[in-house]
Specification:
The protein has a single domain, classed as Cytidine Deaminase, domain 2. The chain contains 6 helices and 5 strands; from the N terminus they run H-E-E-H-H-E-H-E-H-H-E. Helix 4 runs parallel beside helix 6.
């Protein structure tokens, strides 16, 4: 029997966490790790205690901002980082596994929090129809290791 490596374990968990999302636009999951330990998890959606978009606004989701993004949603990586910090867990030197590459705003947070590596599955730019992944470029420019996960995981996002 072969033992799965930690990259596979953590990315598979991120894929499964994405299935917890109540967003009607996109499901994204994130796992924050240090060495071989999970320090936090997250998925995209409105802050806890507000509402679930797919239940309260099933046809259109929550209101959109001028760029077409959800006005209340936190991104999966934001949720993972915020939960860790809220519970007094240092994220400095950690690795973030995320099903969708970070947007530029999340990349700024990732860098500022001292996260050393990001492993992502899919391109944010391709999802948004942008010419390039600004978030990944930002991270690379400032010394954060960026790796695209290369193995195939069945990721059935009902919104794709």
């Amino acid at each position: 029997m072969s033992r799965p490596n930690f990259d596979d374990i953590f990315m598979e968990l991120a894929v499964n966490l994405a299935k917890r999302s109540h967003c009607i636009k996109k499901h994204v999951g994130a796992v924050l790790t240090k060495e071989t330990r999970i320090i936090s998890i997250g998925y995209n959606g409105p802050p806890a205690g507000t509402h679930n978009c797919d239940e309260e606004f099933p046809e259109h989701g929550c209101a959109r901002d001028s760029k077409g993004s959800c006005t209340l949603a936190l991104h999966a990586e934001q949720n993972a980082i915020l939960y860790a910090v809220k519970n007094n867990t240092s994220v400095e030197g950690s690795t973030l596994y995320v099903t969708l590459a970070p947007c530029l705003a999340c990349a700024r947070i990732i860098f500022s929090m001292g996260i050393k590596k990001v492993v992502f599955m899919y391109s944010y730019a391709a999802y948004k129809g942008l010419p390039h992944d600004e978030g990944l470029e930002f991270l690379k420019k400032f010394g954060v290791a960026v790796v695209q996960y290369s193995k195939e995981i069945v990721y059935e996002d009902p919104l794709i």
